[in-house]
Amino acid sequence: MKPTARILLFIAALPGLACAAAEATGTPQSKSWLSPSALVVSADGHHLYVACATANRVAFFDLQSRTISRTISVPASPLGLALTPDGRTLYVTCAAPESTVSVVDTASAASVASIPAGHTAMAPVLSPDGRTLYVCNRFNNEVAFIDLAARKTTRRVKLPREPISAAITRDGKFLLVANHLPAGPAHADVVAASVSIVDTARGRVSREIALPNGSGLLRDLRLSPDGRHAIVVHQLARFHLPTSQIERGWINTNAVSLIDTGAMRLINTVLLDNLDAGAANPWGVAWSSDGRSFTVTHAGTHELSVIDFPALLAKLARLAVAPTTAVPGGYVGTGTAADVPNDLSFITGLRRRIKTGPADLGPRAVALVGAKAYLANYFSDTLTEIDLAAATPHPISIPLQPAVAMSGARRGEFLFNDASICFQGWQSCASCHSSDARVDALNWDNLNDGIGNQKNTKSLLHADLTPPSMWLGVRASAEVSVRAGIRNSLFTVQPEEVAVALDEYLQSLDPIPSPHLAQGKLSDAAQRGEKVFFGPVAGCAECHLPPLFTDLKRHGVGTGGKYDARADEFDTPSLVEVWRSGPYLHDGSAATMRDVFTSRNRAEKHGKTAPLTPQQLDDLVEYVLSL
Ligand code: HEC
Ligand code: HEC
Question: pTM for the complete prediction?
Fold first, then answer.
């Protein structure tokens, strides 16, 4: 589509105007793709329930015949599944700005009820007494407690940022929730996401378990069968170092963190990479029923790791000192507990790495049925069956539908998430921009604008419509940046068609409606804030011109810091979907939107905000967060 046509379409979708049917994932969704992304085993072990994220349906996969026996349509992208212990009822979180939970009767494969949920509901977890369903409302930054008898949310617990997976202790007292991204500013020494421990009786967070510095992009969190341990997979970014090389985990490493659920403390964080082979984008986790091993999918390198859990625990227990969340790079003795998050050989001998095979791309969820592992391959619409009991497993690829050739934006989305086009598989574009081309909330010292001046990762939404590119505008366009990204972030040379597909993917991105909107419309406060934004005092619209809220020009707005000596004029960023892309400013120094107009606008060069009353400031913040 031509840029002008996209802008016109985009104007039609602005809040308050005609509301386009927006998809919750913000990525292109074609009904021809299934995109299997969540799996649950039926109570009798005969079926897998397969959530098909872009087809709005759940498939019942018969393990004996290896075919889909039934499918059920759901109202929106089914991002999560939870089954009652008797196997009769399947709860499906259907993610949208106003999500629903479909209550599915598995015997009749029919949806029998629908319960309203928040923005982008996912990761449903049943309480042991079966009365409550806990759901992560990702973009409301909260966990909702849904009373299943009353079929409504009775409590909401605020969490740091983008809760994405959860598990409950066997006594039902604590819900452990993985936050996808770090909250807070990015120019700090320590930046890491946490696991929130929610006290279910009190309905509040009782503790945040901090993961090591650089932890982010958390995915699956799962409790061991005996309930004594939890593991969560994530990335461990070395964001203090310039991105000048990639060998030996110099930029991003891929990790699993072990939590002792008795003491509710972090045991340690173990790297899943090898010295010369990254294991990018760890995503799904499943435990064997005896708790003797757990498996992790690597969505970027198309692999499964099978890890010997007792041996891993024993090896960790032999180390003397407790882990530290201090700055990596500070000296810690090798062979100590504190060094484990830096040790690319720690897992050696305790884990098997199994490739899925060329027909199976982007494994996300994994489920175990006896000794067999089933992987849901998001980009190839296949399952992989792997017999873990075999000495040399031969993965079997099972198509869920006749193959549809990947083309254009879909292929670009795949490549964006593919680390096999990166030197040694250390990372994919999604390792910094997350799986849907947004942010990791970290600063990186890319060499595009010299060394020693870190920049906050930019969301790539509308990157194609807002040249020049990068905070300093050092690249002429998104296309130029894409090619530089392949060279300088993946450290490989790729044929031009790879770059073209990535371009097409970025061009296909649509904004997600803000969680600050009320039924798709600006709230009263945001409407007042709109007047402030366009009013003569603040003067925001001088530079942030609708519809994209940028004049595509560089300005000095008094935000330059001590590392920006070379240039402190920045390319005016678009404000569309800015609710999602914090922390703010080129150096990620504004943790909240309010900080942008207060502590980070002391010089009053970035719009006039000092004359605004506290009420006007609140309203302005609400408006900008609604865009
Ligand atoms: C190590 C983290 C990292 C990886 C990996 C990475 N990026 Fe980026 N990307 C960034 C950061 C940080 C910025 C902002 C840098 C700046 O403005 O100077 C950025 C900016 C961009 C921009 C400019 C956006 C705009 O509107 O100004 C594009 C386009 C982009 N990246 C595409 C990609 C692609 C495509 C890949 C994979 C080939 C990729 N990136 C891999 C961190 C990363
Ligand atoms: C003179 C042009 C100009 C004016 C006037 C202006 N801005 Fe900006 N705005 C910029 C530039 C340039 C940046 C990038 C600064 C940086 O990254 O350090 C920016 C950054 C921002 C950001 C951070 C976006 C992000 O992704 O991190 C927000 C939010 C914002 N402006 C909102 C506003 C509001 C609200 C007003 C009115 C009070 C305003 N701006 C006035 C040019 C302007």
Answer: 0.93
